[in-house]
Write a structure and sequence with these properties.
heterodimer; A: alpha+beta; two-stranded antiparallel ribbon; elongated; B: 224 residues; alpha/beta; six-stranded mixed β-sheet; 6 helices
């Protein structure tokens, strides 16, 4: 029994080897090409969508939240002893940098001095954040997104940098009546803080972080904000943003910070993801759908190509059966051929993706409104694609052969 | 030995289909060289396909070497064909991706015979005059040579009965003569039982006996 089985395998491998090695080279090339392109496509589409979600997540981390945040307790407006907390946080393993924010709401207006009634009163309520510019630049990328002017210095007192959706102008995506209508570097703006304090600032820089919420923020120095808010704010903070090191587990950092007994709430940026989290989740659903459809389409294409190839060998299958080759050996032979095509296709598709497509996207990322998007390939996607291609190849290889061998040998030989 | 009793074959529905065989009875002794002849559509090829276990009859019995072959399962028929029967088709039917030697060796490989049967395959190919074509592919040799290779393939497992379905139909006169003389030689020297379908009247001179089929029945059965 086992000897017979082994003999059948040996025979099947011999038949498969001869068929691949001496068969129609163009047909083999076509099948392998379809396999390779299907595999590359199966990885590419989800990788682009993963790239988009990764870009969205990165935007949130790099422009709004950092990786981890320390907030005031629910019954407090501010973190007290912020310098002590920040220093403690900075010393923790996995923490690369920390920046405290002192946040306030303010009515920002331009052209308040003009006598032109159509220009007068251009303004709106925005979030203004006091920062230590140097520490902030180690946590967020705001300092790298200036489209005009320059970044803040620690000692700046009458300087402000505005998000492009506050300043307006050609870089803004919002309508001009939703912003200051095109404030430029060097212009003055007047801020009326929530406590009634009014300050005039010179616009030192305008940034475009490509995140709607981030671009509706303005930044002044920490010292300036603390003074504008009144006495006792120099040691207070609205939030401390924390940047973790590369490949550091955020959850571990959160857990560690919680264990320190800090008088505040330690949270991952994901808690703040909010609506964007839903967008990312939607992208994941879309990516899964597209992958699923792509897999089915690829499977159908492969099935058709292999099916035609096998149907063309109908007469040969009939002859093999007539001379006494049993069905099992014929099935295994075609299964081996299909798996060979699948494996070679996967390898070539992988090489195409890894050495051509991925480097191309790395060098030329997609420039979308959310930022530069390159491919983010998930190992699970690769695994699913490999399994999908193999399963499709197995079905495509075996079903037509089963179909042919079920019918009369004579019909197979006659090709009817 | 072959014994056929009341063999029927209907293509399609029993009432409205084509009745290719309408009750064939015949007996072929071991070592006989028999020609089955008849006009096109007479049922001679159908009869050969049934005898060679390549198709199933509608009813009737076929005894091959004492075994009722009709009762065998598909897989048992495959084994029986492999070990006991040889088959030569009208067209050469070699596997194009294999050399002449590999084509001949293939049925032995199916029986689990390894390289020891390569030698036998080489010897048989020598016998049929293809000793110089062992490593050629089918498309590299003539039609007559392909048919001789097909005969060699049919003989590799020492079959009890060799079936040939119009083996010379696709050959020129010279190649056909070589093939028929080869059959005659196998029959005379090895007492190989051969049942051959042919529509060429001049093939009669090579065989011991001719069975004429007409309208799905044996019309005449006698010595050649």
């Amino acid at each position: 029994m086992i000897r017979g089985l082994f003999g059948n395998f040996k025979l099947a491998i011999f038949l498969a080897f001869k068929s691949i090695w001496k068969g129609n080279r163009w047909a083999s090339l076509l099948i392998i090409s379809v396999m390779a392109l299907s595999f590359a496509q199966l990885i590419l589409t989800p990788s682009i969508l993963s790239g988009v979600t990764q870009a969205l997540n990165s935007q949130q981390i790099n422009t709004l939240y950092g990786n981890v945040l320390v907030d005031p307790k629910n019954d407090a407006y501010y973190l007290e002893n912020a310098t002590v907390i920040q220093t403690l946080v900075e010393q923790q393993p996995g923490v690369a940098a920390a920046s405290r924010h002192l946040t306030n709401g303010a009515f920002i207006e331009s052209n308040w001095k003009t006598t032109n009634v159509t220009m007068k009163g251009t303004g709106g309520n925005y979030r203004v954040i006091g920062i230590d510019p140097e520490k902030e630049s180690r946590v967020t990328t705001i300092s790298q997104t200036l489209i005009s002017g320059s970044y803040l210095n620690r000692d700046d007192r009458d300087q402000i940098i505005l998000g492009v959706e506050i300043a307006g102008g050609p870089g803004a995506s919002g309508a001009s009546f939703l912003n200051l209508g095109g404030v430029k570097v060097g212009d003055n703006v007047r801020l009326t803080y929530a406590n009634g304090t009014q300050r005039e600032y010179n616009v030192k820089g305008i940034f475009k972080a490509r995140d709607g919420e981030a671009d509706r923020q303005a930044f002044v120095s920490y010292t300036e904000m603390a003074e504008a808010m009144g006495t006792g704010f120099t040691e207070r903070a609205s939030q401390i943003l924390i940047k973790t090191g590369p490949s550091v587990n955020e959850t571990a950092v959160v857990d560690n910070l919680k264990s320190l007994g800090i008088n505040g709430e330690v949270r991952s940026w994901k808690v703040y993801g909010g609506g964007m989290g839903e967008v990312v989740a939607s992208f994941d659903v879309i990516a899964s759908l597209i992958s699923g459809i792509g897999l089915v389409v690829a499977a159908i294409v492969m099935f058709i190509v292999i099916y035609i190839s096998v149907i063309n060998k109908k007469r040969q299958i009939g002859v093999l059966r007539a001379i006494g080759v049993n069905r099992f050996a014929i099935y295994v032979s075609y299964l081996c051929q299909a798996l060979f095509y699948a494996v070679v296709g996967i390898i070539l598709g992988g090489v195409l993706f890894g050495y051509v497509i991925q480097p191309y996207f790395a060098a030329h990322p997609l420039d979308l409104s959310i930022g530069k998007v390159s491919l983010a390939t998930d190992p699970a996607t690769i695994q699913i694609s490999i399994i999908g291609i193999m399963v499709a190849a197995i079905f495509a290889g075996i079903i037509p052969v089963i179909n042919i061998t079920r019918h009369s040998i004579i019909k197979a030989i006659w090709g009817t | 030995m072959i014994i056929v009793r009341d063999l029927h074959k209907t293509y399609g529905n029993e009432r409205t289909g084509t009745h290719a065989l309408k009750g064939i009875n015949l007996k072929v002794e071991t070592g006989e060289f028999v020609a089955i002849m008849g006009r096109s559509g007479s049922g001679k090829s159908t009869l050969l396909h049934l005898l060679g276990l390549l198709d199933n009859p509608t009813r009737g019995e076929i005894y091959l070497d004492g075994k009722n072959a009709i009762t065998l399962s598909d897989e048992q028929k495959t084994s029986f064909r492999l070990g006991k029967l040889g088959y030569v088709f009208q067209e050469y039917s070699l596997i194009t991706e294999m050399t002449i030697l590999e084509n001949v060796w293939l049925p032995a490989l199916c029986l689990g015979h390894g390289n020891n049967y390569r030698k036998r395959a080489t010897d048989i190919l020598d016998t049929v005059g293809l000793g110089h074509r062992l490593d050629h592919y089918p498309n590299e040799v003539s039609g007559g040579e392909q048919q001789r290779a097909a005969i060699a393939r049919a003989l590799i497992n020492k079959p009890s009965i060799l079936f040939a379905d119009e083996p010379t139909a696709s050959l020129d006169i010279n190649s056909a003569k070589i093939v028929l003389e080869l059959f005659k030689k196998l029959n005379q020297e090895l007492q190989q039982t051969i049942v051959m379908v042919t529509h060429e009247p001049e093939d009669e001179k090579y065989v011991d006996r001719v069975i004429w089929i007409k309208d799905g029945l044996v019309a005449e059965d006698g010595l050649a």
